């Protein structure tokens, strides 16, 4: 599925309830988990030690919850393509829940819904609820409301 194209941030107004995605599947391999561990300093054995983790509660290594959460930044542009702005910023996130571990080797994808749009401080702010699904699982890995703010293009000086 291709991304929903929104020509200007203002065109987001009134789009609450719009479904987004699904994205393409992404395999969570051990190399990605190890790189995330190196980047964050979180080398807990359930993430980086396949031998020990095989005997652990998940039967193998699992992705860090925050790795799974960070993938929303990978999935969001696959779901929605907002255009016509000078700068976009991630304002934050609300309602983050980790519901199911992502076992290394699993495939995940994102689905979304625009749950809020408002004008704030000369910009358009959107809240998109993203669900990270795990292939073959009924319960998703995580659900998070991402908040993005889009600033209008600068008016050229005459």
Automatic annotation (TrEMBL):
The protein's name: MaoC family dehydratase
Pfam families, A to Z: MaoC_dehydratas
Superkingdom of this protein's organism: Bacteria
Database matches in InterPro entries: HotDog_dom_sf, MaoC-like_dom, NodN-like
Sequence intervals crossing the membrane: none
PANTHER family: MAOC-LIKE DEHYDRATASE DOMAIN-CONTAINING PROTEIN
Domain MaoC-like: 17-131
